[in-house]
Structure formats: C-alpha cells, structure tokens
Write a structure and sequence with these properties.
The protein is of the alpha/beta class. The protein has a single domain, classed as Rossmann fold (3-Layer(aba) Sandwich), CATH 3.40.50.720. Helix content is 33%, strand content 20%. It is built from 4 helices and 7 strands, in the order βαββββαβαβα. Helix 2 packs parallel to helix 3. The mean pLDDT is 95.
C-alpha cells in the first residue's frame, strides 16, 4: 500500500486534515501526518515537514490555505513525491502555477472523495 503524507493534518476530528488521516488509515494506507504544532495525531507520530520523514512518500494530500501551500510545494518537489493532491480550499492560481514550475502535476480534487469517503 502507498505511503501518504497528510499535509495540514489536524488533531481536531472535525477538520478535513483529521478526517483524511482517519480515512487513509481505514483504507490501509501508511499515513504520515504533517503538522508544525502537534506531535501526535490519531496515535501517529507527526512530522513538521515531508523532508523530515525517513524513506519514500508516494503521495501528498494538502489541506492548507494557499499561502502556506506554496512553501510546502517546494518541500514536496524536493522529496520527489510524485502524486500531489491539492484539496478544495488549498488551491489557487498561484499554487497551481508554482506546482507546475516545480515540475509537479497536481491533482486538484478532494482526496477524501476519491477514496469514496462520505463526508
């Protein structure tokens, strides 16, 4: 199964960043929460950046406002994560332009819906 980084993971169970952690776990993915404040989310160790995660990450799903997502894209490109989802609320023309400049081909859609989750 793929390793997925949930960037903007949250300990607040009502936020999409938390729902994504739980749904990816439920579907059998190896989940790596990324959050600059928390140390544990849903029993998982939290990393401050995808660059801090040892080993390969197959997919990143981003749940951050566009202004924060711009910086994250640089880290995603550096980590060579090939599948990048930009979820609703995280997208903007600047984010998409920056992703393309970095050689990323973002999927602009809700990764939770793609999993078949009911919200």
């Amino acid at each position: 199964m793929k390793t997925v980084a949930v960037v903007g993971a949250s300990s607040n169970r009502y936020k999409f960043g938390n729902q994504a952690v739980r749904e990816f776990l439920k579907q059998g993915y190896t989940v790596v929460p990324i959050n600059r404040r928390d140390t544990e989310i849903e029993g998982l160790k939290v990393y401050r950046s995808v660059l801090d995660v040892p080993g390969r990450i197959d997919m990143a799903t981003i749940y951050l406002p566009p202004n924060k997502g711009l910086d994250v894209l640089v880290e995603v490109a550096e980590k060579q994560i090939s599948e990048v989802w930009i979820n609703p609320g995280a997208e903007s023309p600047e984010v998409l332009q920056r992703a393309h400049e970095l050689g990323l081909e973002p999927i602009v859609a809700c990764s939770l819906m793609a999993l078949g989750a009911t919200l």
